[in-house]
Hints:
Oligomer: single chain
Amino acid sequence: MAAKKSTSVGFKDLGIQNGANIYSEFSEAYNYGHSAWGQAWDEMKKDIEFVLGKQWSIADEAYLKKQGRSAWVFNKMMRIVKLISGYQRKTRLSVKADPVEGADSATAEQLTACLLWLFSSNQYYLTLSEAFESGELMSGINLVQVGMDYGQDLVNGDPQLYRYPYNQFLLDPSFTKKDLSDCTFGMVRLAPSKDQAKKLLPFLAPEDIDKLPLKGMDNRFPLMVSHRDTLGRPRMNLYYFWSRTTKPVWLILDKQTGALREVGDKTGTQVNQALEIAYAMHGDRFEKIRKVKGIVNLDIILQDQVVYHGADPTGIEDNYPFVPIMGTYVPEYDDWRYKIQALARQLRDPQTQKNKRMVQMLDIIESQINAGWLAKPRAVLDKDALYRSGQGRVVWLTDDAQGGDVEQLRGADVPASHFQMQELMDREIPDISGVNQEMFGAPENENIEIAGILAKMRMAAGLVGLQEYFDDYRFAKQNLGKLLIGAIQSNWSPDKVKRVTGQEPTQAFFVKDFGRYDAAVTEGILTDTQRQMFYAELKAMRKDGYAVPVSLLVEHMPIQLKEEVKKALVDAEKSQAQAAQEKMILDKTTLEVLNAQKVLTLAQAREKLTASEENRASAVLERARAAVEIKDIGTQRALDLIGLMFEAQQRIEDRNMQRENMAAQAQQAGGQPV
Length: 674
């Protein structure tokens, strides 16, 4: 979170009066914010204590101690918090930059490579998971800030994520939007040693920091820990104070296209000089316009002295360099004890009642072991025997003791209603949190034969009630991605980008508006590098049926001895292709044989049809001969012969029809005309 070393801004440059004014604004902002956040901090502390196991009030503990009873804790809240937190850790997703329609995909890929490198090399995922657990599940809110760290790279620096718990920061209590677009100020408190302060504030001379007296803890942020070191020595009071303000800027208007472009921190004279050069080339096409722009300023206060005033060292000027990760936040409600709260808040009361019932039940059970005796003073030889407990106890009576002189008192049995109430509490705590038995890995009522699909549906139904927490976390992570892109563009040199991505940065890489108009920060497959993400996407494409070659998969496969694996897989792919080709040739040969058989069948059918036609011609000739001979036969005999001739002709036509049907069937089988 160190500020980049600079000689242009420092507490010596501010002047006494300016520094006093800034410190006064800081004090007013804290007093205004603490009037609301102070109420929330008390409840948030109790929420965390309950999750950690401190679940008895001071009054209840004193009452139990007075009665000689123990304040046992049966913590159900920790399990629920760890379950939901574990689910978030198990289903982590990465952050990447996706090009919008028509945008430069090469630039988006380079930004994605930079984001993946930062997340994998700086434990960002762990920081965000801790903020999710501590903020949304335990206290109600955490703050994650983007800051520059120059420990590894003294020139460019590396963006880092810093997590601040609820008791270490304060926001404008009137904000209503979770992106903090309507938040007027925010502050963070640190308690470094002098050596740590020198690293955090490298623009200050080390001897100036050594001269500052250690005043001890002030009255701000009373719940914050680590105000002193392990030896009890006080630390320094360091504050980062961000506030929204405005500044005048110059814009250049292109009259031809209507496009506006901000020219940065240029004076009016510099803008006029640039327009004179542009006029010689383009005429009066361009025009300057003066506007007021909203920005965020940073003030750093060390030991009540303002040591820095200006833009945030990350280069993020139009927004805060941090995002809140919150649980339930209802801005329209006025009571800060309930306005913002975590999942743990709704579990405090049932957890308290469970502890009370369990302590009562255990006290009743323990009282049965040695409930006491009812005895006359001289009826027992050894009175100490009445105070002993355990198996095989013997109480000796005097010789003149009568029946009934010594009687053992029996303790009361635990009422059945206590067990019923305990079972009810065991069900109520997870039900109130939105967690069901399927999410714990066991079916409801321990019914192991329950259908797997039903258990999965019940688990999904339980997660619906927790969806608000995951949506808010995803929203915060996407906003952090935008801040990281801004910090990369403002601080990294082209050489640093090439070192991380392995490519020369594109022309649009350092355009500040690219991350706003041309790329969208989204979630992707959790991988350490862009190459691994590309490999996962290739696998998904191949699974969906796309013709992705094995060589391309192996080329981006994140394994060792890649060349040997690549050669083996490529050889196997060639063998499969050769076998497929041989099978295709065999199938073609088989098809040709079948076609030859069909042609032979058709030829035989044609031969039979030709013979049929010859037989038909012979029959016609015989009929003609018969007609010549009819004149020599009597009339009745002629009629009989004519009838016989017609019958023979009908039989011949029937046989011919049968042969034609056979030929037609053969033609259909061969697919060729006869």
